[in-house]
Specification:
Family: Belongs to the universal ribosomal protein uS10 family.
Protein name: Small ribosomal subunit protein uS10 domain-containing protein
Keywords: Ribonucleoprotein, Ribosomal protein
Number of strands: 4
CATH architecture: 2-Layer Sandwich
GO molecular function: RNA binding; structural constituent of ribosome
Structural class: alpha+beta
Number of domains: 1
InterPro entries: Ribosomal_uS10, Ribosomal_uS10_CS, Ribosomal_uS10_dom, Ribosomal_uS10_dom_sf
Number of helices: 3
Length: 93
């Protein structure tokens, strides 16, 4: 029964959170803008970027996407600046 449930959610919509962190604000903002522009070109539902408090000169931005994971893979394949670290988290609805 558990296998049937997971098969049904593969094509479904997931909540994907992209966390970007960097010490360099300019490169962080550039990557944020590129990700959001790529998502809006594909008419995807985007929330963000949400600015998190700066700790020890490390800047953080959160971007939420509510779309199928296959489409999000296409968006996240853009080139990311070397100074920016990206973390992608997928949560089931």
């Amino acid at each position: 029964r558990h296998r049937e449930d997971t098969r049904g959610t593969r094509g479904g919509i997931h909540q994907i959170r992209i966390t970007l962190t960097s010490c360099n604000v300019k490169s962080l903002e550039k990557v944020c803008a590129d990700l959001i522009r790529a998502a809006k070109e594909k008419n995807l539902k985007v929330k963000g970027p949400m600015q998190m408090p700066t700790k020890m000169r490390i800047h953080k931005r959160l971007i939420d996407l509510h779309n199928p994971s296959e489409i999000v893979k296409q968006i996240t394949s853009i080139s990311i600046e070397p100074a920016v670290e990206a973390e992608v988290t997928i949560a089931d609805p």
